[in-house]
Design goal:
By secondary structure, the protein is of the alpha/beta class. It is built from ten helices and 24 strands. The chain has helices at about 10-15, 90-100, 135-145, 205, 220-235, 250-260, 310-330, 360-375, 425-430, 450-465; strands at about 1-5, 25-30, 50, 55, 60-65, 70-75, 75, 85-90, 110, 115, 130-135, 145-150, 155, 160, 175-180, 190, 275-280, 280-285, 295-300, 335-340, 350-355, 380, 400, 410. It has an eight-stranded antiparallel beta sheet with strand order 17-18-19-21-20-23-24-22, with helices on both faces. The longest helix has 21 residues, at about 310-330. The model is unreliable at about 235-255 and about 470-479 (pLDDT under 50).
Length: about 475
């Protein structure tokens, strides 16, 4: 049962908090939408308001014992620097999208605000439609809930489909429902009760059924505009062309890039306490916001965009680290190692290495294929021993996953489909593998510098016997 409620005053809230007023059924609430109400939620420990009343929090995905997945977003949209506790930001939206991305599907999304353009393809109602939030439309379009509940005048929109007919694989539709405030004077509907089987327990055939009056997706144009904005922000360090004939940036500009880069070993911005070992042209470092405390990265000491631009000796250094990590994880952790690299929207190469326990290579590949299907990504499998770079046009953006047996999956980035930047983390954090849905976004996994230093020390101690470079100097002058 979903209910839209409105604050009835401080006295009612306090009586609920102190237990003098109780609810008989488990009730979950979102946070404040007004600055004056934010203080009510400031000191709630572990989300427990009182017996049977739980504050879900700022944003996240709540899964019930029977598998019902409920994504939620508290508050109203604020700008990127907003510190108002009743506001959510672009960062909150990105984190929620990443958390939802590792689920098998989102059954219900609950937000206080309406998304922009939701009324497209339907007749305008008799009431004044609330102002919509374009950033929220982008979220809804990406996580594709089966039901989206909001607060406002009571309204049930015709369901809309989440795929393009004849262009995309058929999938389920979404129903948008706005509920009026509880106890409103107009006696508009404020409660919605319905029988529902969670997506994870529903057959694909049942999910694909489309009601007769289903409309097109109203958020397509909002999504296109969002994509145009993001494309304008993307900066690529090298021009597109033959990787051996590509024009290099002006020397002065290259030095500026190196000075400001987070990964160039000589840059003042590099966090050298994360460095585990330096060998030749590469170094091994703990990943910032790691999925696990043994999630590491192979990184060039100098400014190199991706593996496509490595010289033979640099490729050899990468392979030495890979062999050492595979042996270390297989021997010490009884785990297989998954390497992945994304060249899109990055200017400095990072090859991530994550141990995944107890799974065969084929099992892990299957999960990558599942997520590729989810995002309509083009994927090609490269058997061990074949050169994957022959598959990638020079200068093209790509994502590569590499497995214990040296098989690889290549995902080519195209203009038609926007590549999800957290793809590698989404796959590995999924329920099928590491089962860490809250750790998709690295920003949600940041730890203190002291903890990072401890994790680096522990990893280096365990890794040294496998390290071909024997833990080189982190202040290497490699140029």
């Amino acid at each position: 049962t979903v209910v839209s409620a409105q604050s009835t005053g401080v006295e009612s809230w306090l009586s609920l908090r102190d237990g003098s007023y109780t609810l008989d059924v488990p009730t979950y609430i979102l946070g404040a939408t007004k600055s004056a109400h934010a203080a009510y939620f400031a000191h709630i420990a572990d989300g427990q308001v009182t017996e049977n009343v739980t504050y879900l929090g700022r944003r996240g995905v709540y899964t019930t014992t029977n598998g019902l997945s409920i994504a939620y977003l508290s508050g109203v949209f604020g700008d990127s620097v907003s510190n108002d506790p009743h506001c959510y930001t672009e960062t909150d939206l990105n984190i929620l999208q990443a958390q939802a991305g590792v689920m098998s599907g989102i059954d219900i999304l609950i937000t206080a605000q309406w998304p922009a353009d939701v009324m497209k393809y339907v007749k305008n109602p008799e009431f004044q439609v609330p102002d919509g939030v374009a950033e929220l439309s982008h979220l809804v379009n990406n996580i594709k809930p089966r039901y989206h509940f909001v607060s406002g005048p009571y309204y049930e929109r015709l369901p809309y489909r989440n795929h393009k007919i004849l262009h995309e694989k058929a999938t389920y539709c979404t129903r948008f429902i706005s509920l009026a405030c509880a106890g409103n004077r107009n006696k508009s509907k404020w409660l919605y009760a319905f029988n529902y089987v969670p997506m994870k327990h529903t057959t694909d055939e049942e999910l694909r059924k489309q009601p007769q009056e289903t409309t097109e997706n109203p958020y397509v144009e909002v999504q296109k505009e969002k994509n145009r904005e993001e494309d304008a922000k993307q900066q690529h360090f090298y021009s597109v062309g033959d990787k051996r004939k590509m024009s290099a940036p002006h020397p002065g500009e290259r030095e500026k890039k190196k000075e400001s880069c987070w990964f160039c070993l000589k840059s003042p911005n590099v966090e050298k306490h994360l460095v585990i070992s330096v060998g030749g042209s590469m170094y091994l470092a703990l990943a910032k916001g790691a999925l696990r405390n043994d999630h590491v990265m192979i990184v060039p000491t100098n400014h190199i965009k991706c593996q496509q631009f490595l010289e033979p000796n640099q490729q050899d250094d990468v392979q030495k680290f890979k062999r050492a990590l595979r042996t270390h994880n297989r021997t010490s952790k009884k785990s297989t190692t998954v390497f992945f690299e994304r060249s899109v929207s990055t200017s400095h190469m990072q090859v991530h290495a994550v141990p995944v326990p107890r799974y065969s290579v084929n099992d892990i590949k299957d999960v990558f294929y599942t997520f590729a299907d989810k995002y309509s990504l083009e994927v090609q499998e490269i058997p061990a021993g074949e050169d994957w770079q022959d598959t990638v046009p020079p200068g093209s953006d790509y994502f590569i996953a590499e497995f214990e047996n040296d098989d690889k999956l290549i995902f080519l980035c195209s203009q038609k489909v926007r590549f999800p930047l957290q793809f590698g983390r989404e796959v590995l954090a999924s329920e099928e593998l590491l089962n860490m849905p809250r750790r998709v976004s690295w920003k949600e996994c940041k730890i203190s510098k002291e903890q990072e230093e401890h994790d680096v020390k522990q990893f280096r101690k365990a890794f040294t016997e496998f390290d071909s470079f024997k833990g080189g100097d982190s202040d290497s002058d490699s140029d």
